[in-house]
Every structure is written in structure tokens, then in C-alpha cells.
Amino acid sequence: MHGSTEVAAPLFLSIGVLLLFAWSFGEIARRMNQPAVLGEIIAGLVLGPTVFGYISPDMLHWMFPAEGHTASMIEGITSVSIALFLLVAGMEVEFAAIIKARRIAAITGMGGLIIPFAVGFGAAYMFPEQFGAAVGHYDTIFALFIATAMSISALPVIARTLMDLNLYRSELGMITIAAAVLNDLIGWLVFAVILALFGLGHSGASGIAATLIMTILFSAVMLTIGRKIIDKALTWVQAYLSWPAGTLGFVLVLTFLSAAAAEAIGIHAIFGSFLAGVALGDSKHLSEHTKKTITQLVSFVFAPLFFASIGLKVNITANFDFMLTMVIIIIAFAGKIFGSGITAKLSGLSNRESIAIGVALNARGAMEIILALLALQMGVIDERLFVSLLVMALATSLFCGPVVKRVLQLKPGRRFVSYLSDKYFMSKVSARTPIEVIEEMSVLFQKTGLDVNMIQEKLIERERLMPTGLSNGVAVPHARVKGLKQPLIAVGISRAGINFDSSDGSPAQVIIMILVPETENALLLNLFAEIAKTFNQPDASSVLVDSKNFAQFLSSLRVLIENVRR
């Protein structure tokens, strides 16, 4: 018993202190409008060799030993944490958006992947020592890692940026998210292969080939048959097991089994948990509310532990190389923004939208940090390059939101309320599904002489790509329509509420349908962002649902808008 206490007490103390500092610094970062991960990493640097180790090395070794039982258990906990974080990252992936993505999203995604990949590979292959390749390493494998690090995006950071700008479920948001999803899926697959190549570097061609084939098969099964089996299994779990415990238990079991399968194949466990997240997140039986519950559990407990633990592993001041860091940042920014931006422009988007997409996809965040840490642990890179990649990941994430906002210039001219008319107001929507709502409300546009069937097809196609339910009981189905001369906005009230798969799980009671001319991308973004901002208040929709007629609705809406302005 005494021996058990000697092991347990330091472990719980270490975890408690690490979590306390991670929470505190993460909260400070949030209050400064910065990503929490920035504060969590700084917390680890303060507790690690960079600060605490410099002040009191003996105290650091006692609190966070580099070896022994406590060190092994902390490593085990952080391994579980990173697997759960990748589960959440995978759940953010709208896999259906890739399958259904239009040409713009596919081309933009591939441009944002191939161009930075080629730039990163070429630079690292020609100058491996200058980039910090581990001594005695294969140049090709190292160059492949740098190429992957230059091409991957951080889907959670991109999604959060679009949410903060009220553009997440807009058309631009859909293109950006679909492109980021494509980046992440291919990027993680390539990285899994790189780790397998490195681990099997001396095992011969047959061993490498077997691992590559099994990796591809595992990915294919998880993203095809596996998705369907998981979807059906979730139906059974929700029907026969208690909620939310049954669903949460099923998610965790699936995650750990998938991670174990990845390790058995010879690739890293986190790739298995990421694929499990993709398969789970794509299920129509996993509601946004359930996803949010899982995300909160991971984001407030496991993710802070993992990101804070990074600072315990490296001395950032002793390994900071200014020139290497600047080279990494320049290559990262230029390759990603140019690659994504130029392909978006060639696909027909405006200059501002193309640059905004390139800047958004340039955010690397936690995904880059995880890649770098795994490469460091596997011996692919040294600590000097790890620190440079860490700084680059934070810089691109901090750069993302403010620059996207500035590039898009989200300042509407005419406010959306000025486009409202009693001709396009439906006080009692009887439909029960999003598709039925679109079919019922689009009839209002018959008076314009437009082809109602064409309008319905456009709106339904957009809705199927990504649901348009926002928080607080509002949905904004929208489309760009050929032949339309000026924007049209219809409003419908559903007292029963319709499930538009909103981010907070609330049924939509106010449906605002937007049609804009085919070339008016910027106008659509401004209208969408303004509506999202107006309804980003608790119980905003309930004020309007009680309106008896259009005049009363308009009056209540103007009060809401004035509250937002204040």
C-alpha cells in the first residue's frame, strides 16, 4: 500500500497542477480573444524546462520526472488525451461534404494540398540539414514529413474562425470547410504512411508494402462499410441504451478499438481515432448536441492536459532558431495561401473570397503541433525544427481570424431587414423537415416569375451539402440563382420547430430563406453574417415566433437588431 501511495500521490499532484495551469492560461488566452491552445501550451512551457526547469531543475524533476512510474503514467494519460482530441477533430469532418462538394471545393482543396506539399518537399529534400533533419535519417522520408506539415490544415481552428465571423454555414464557409476536410483526410493518410515508412525503414520492401496496403484498406473500410455499420449501431444504441451514457460509451469504445487497430497495422493510434471520428461524425444519428457534449468533455479536460504536456518535453529558448523559424513561416504562408487562393480564383471566386479561403486554410493550429510532436517522438525531426513548427502553428492560427475578417470586409450596405416584404412572409409553416420547408416556402416566389422548381433544386442542393441551421432557433437556407436581378428574402414561422441540425441542437422556428443573383457572392456573405449575428442571442427567435402578423414581426426584428448594435 505504501508503495502504491508513493506512485499515486506524485501522479495526481502532477496531473492536478498541469490541468490547473492549462485551464488558467487557456482562460486568459480566451479573454484576450486568442485560441485556448495558445494559453495551454504556454502553461506547459512555464511548468517545463523553459521556465520552471531554469528556476528549479530539481523541483521540476520531482514534479514531472523524465522516467519512472509517474512519467509512464503521465505519458499514458496524454496518449489517451491525444487520441480523444483526434476523435473530436475527426467528428468535425463533414465527410458527406467531400462526396457532394462542388468543383470549387474540390479544386481549392487539392490546390491547397498539392502546391504547399510540392514546395515543402522540394525545399526539405534539397536542404535537409538546414531544416533540422535528424542525423542519419532518410532524406526522402524527412522531406515527405515537411511536405505534409506544409500542406495540412487545422479544421477545428478554421471552423471556429468561421463561427466567430458568423459564416460557418454560409456558401463560402461550406467551400472552405470542404476544402479543409479534403486537406486533413489526405494529409493524415500521408502522415500515417510516413510514420509507417520510418518505423519500417529497415524491414525491407515487403514489410513496407504490407503496411501501406493495410493502411489504405483500413482507411477505405472505415470510410465506406464502417460508416454504414457505425450508423446502424448508433441507432441500436440510442434505442436500447440510456442516453447520453450509452452513446458516450459506444463512442469511446469505438475510438479505442480503432486506435488499437491502427497500432496493430503499424501506424500511429491517433490515425485510428481520427478515422473513428470521421465515421461517427458523418452519422445522421449522432446529433449536434451529442457531438457538443463529447467535444466539451475533451476540450476542457483531455485537450488541455495534452497541449500543456508539450511544454514539458522541450526547452523552447534553448532550441529556438530564428532563421529556421522564419523560413518555415514564409514557406507555410506562401505555399498555402497561394495554392488555395489561386485555385479558388481559377474556380470562379472573387479576389477577396479567394484570398480569404487561402488565409483560412493556412491555419495549422493543433493539427500541426500533433504532427510535429509525433515526428519528434519518432526521431524524424530534432527539437530545433519542432520549436519552429510549433511557432509556425501558433502564428498561422493567430493570423487567421483577423485577416479573414479584414479581407472580406464584412460591412453590409443595405441591411437584410430592408429586403423583407409581406409578400414573402409565411406566418404558419406546416412542414416538418428541411426539404419540406424549402418546398413549401419557395412557392412564395411564384409571384416573381422565376422557375420555382429550379429555386427548390438550388436550395435543396445547398442544404444537403451542409445544414443551414444556426443557433437559437433560426435556419437560413440560401442559394445563388441565375437570372435573379436583386436579392429576395422570405420568412417563415414554425411554432413546432424543424430540425435543421443546428449547432446547439435547437429546432428552427424562424426560417429565413435568401436568394441572391448568381454573381453576388459578397452580398450573400454579408446578409448571412448579419442574420447570424442578429440571432446570436438567447431566445431571439421566440420573440419573433409570437408575432401575429408581418408588421409585428418586422417591429420585433428591428428591436433585436438595435440590441445587437448596442
Mean pLDDT: 82
Structural class: mainly alpha
Rg of Cα set: 25 Å
Query: How many strands in all?
Result: 5
Catalogue the unreliable spans. Answer: none
CA(first)-CA(last) distance: 62 Å
Proportion of beta-strand residues: 5-15%
Question: Globular, elongated, flat, extended or rod-shaped: what is the shape?
Answer: globular
- Count, helices: 25
SSE order, one letter for each helix or strand: HHHHHHHHHHHHHHHHHHHHEHHEEEEHHH
Helix percentage range: 55-70%
* Largest sheet properties: 5 strands, mixed
Describe the structure.
The protein is mainly alpha-helical. Helix content is 69%, strand content 5%. It is built from 25 helices and five strands. It has helices spanning 2-31, 36-47, 52-55, 57-63, 69-91, 95-100, 103-126, 128-131, 139-151, 155-164, 171-199, 204-223, 225-240, 245-265, 269-281, 288-313, 322-346, 351-361, 365-378, 383-408, 434-441, 452-465, 521-534, 540-545, 550-565; strands at 425-426, 474-475, 478-481, 488-498, 508-517. Strands 1, 2, 3, 4 and 5 form a five-stranded mixed beta sheet that branches. Helix 11 runs antiparallel to helix 12, helix 11 runs parallel beside helix 18 and helix 17 (322-346) crosses helix 18 (351-361).
